[in-house]
Amino acid sequence: MSFIVAFIWSFALWLVLTAGTNGMLWSLEELIAGIIFATIVGFSTRNIIGEKTQRFLNPIKWLGFIVYAVGPLFWGMAKANLDVAYRVVTGKIKPGIVRVPVDLENEAQYTILSNSITLTPGTLTVDACPEEKALYVHWIYVKEEEPKTSEPVAGSFEKWARRLGK
Amino acid sequence: MGSDMGLIVKTMARATIPLIGIFGAYVISHGHLTPGGGFQGGATIAGAGILFLIAFGINEAKEKINKSLYSALEGLGGLVFLAAGMLGLSVAFFYNTLWHNGPIFNGEPGTLLSAGYLPIMNLAVGLKVYTGLVSAVFAMALFRRWRK
């Protein structure tokens, strides 16, 4: 099963790279070569790609990722960049590392949440500790020294990460 | 010994190693059409191998990387290169007979199956560079200890 996931994941990148060989589409030989190479890559990486990755083959999940990327994530990045520009100009900073308790189950959820926190300027994930269900976040302006949830640090990102990585 | 990266690095490595691999295969197999070729693509895939080694640690890599297989594949890459060079031996060494009158790889220039023996040689060089670089880096990572 994980072979099929690795195969589809790499074949999708091959299709993106070779688009336009036959008009706007793909010529037959590119498709066959892509199947061969994606088979090799998928076979070699089938034990690396992780367990239960077939849940990411769900098209509803892809839609969720797209909505998340152009909606909350983009809006959060735009807002946070302006906030950091304000802090650069005025110099009002109070940096510190805070421990943020999160309620997530698997690695993908931790990765999505950590990357979202790092992508929004002003916050930077230093470490993710799944055994104590917490993230350590370096914050440019500490508003709460011991937050009870991830709400003050990450907004609605935790809810999205829980849904997307489930 | 056996140290590895945290959870985020590991998960991102799981997602990106197949992508680096297929991108390297793209660079190798389109060596006669786009910039790149055997060495560049092979080094790209070796980057995926090194990412695996660094993200998952030496113990995990010990289970997955087979010394004899890599050694044999490196030799095979060199042999295929030489065999492609021998194909047109009745005219000259490295005579591109596949392009001039061969049954395959003589398509219209600009398509994938053109340029005679070049795609075969690119694949051979890519295989050789990938296995050689990964073996070299893995051997260095296995170096017994820093100081006696």
Automatic annotation (TrEMBL), chain A:
How does this protein lie in the membrane? Multi-pass membrane protein
Lineage of source species: Archaea, Methanobacteriati, Methanobacteriota, Thermococci, Thermococcales
* UniProt key word Zinc: no
User: Where in the cell is the protein located?
Assistant: Cell membrane
Full protein name: Cation:proton antiporter
Tell me where the transmembrane regions lie. 28-48, 60-78
Query: GO molecular function of the protein, one example?
Result: monoatomic cation transmembrane transporter activity
Q: Which organism is it from?
A: Thermococcus litoralis
UniProt key word Coiled coil: no
Q: Which UniProt keywords apply?
A: Cell membrane, Membrane, Transmembrane, Transmembrane helix
Q: Which GO terms describe its cellular component?
A: plasma membrane
| Source superkingdom | Archaea
Question: What NCBIfam families does this protein map onto?
Answer: PRK08383.1 (NF006245)
From TrEMBL, chain B:
Record keyword DNA damage present: no
**Membrane topology, from the record:** Multi-pass membrane protein
- Pfam families from the xrefs? MnhB (PF04039)
Instruction: List each copy of the Na+/H+ antiporter MnhB subunit-related protein domain by range.
Output: 8-134
Q: Where does this one sit in the cell?
A: Cell membrane
Keyword Membrane listed: yes
A Gene Ontology cellular-component term? plasma membrane
**Membrane-spanning residues:** 12-33, 39-58, 70-95, 115-143
| UniProt keyword list | Cell membrane, Membrane, Transmembrane, Transmembrane helix
Q: What is this protein called?
A: Cation:proton antiporter
**In which organism is this protein found?**
Thermococcus litoralis (strain ATCC 51850 / DSM 5473 / JCM 8560 / NS-C)
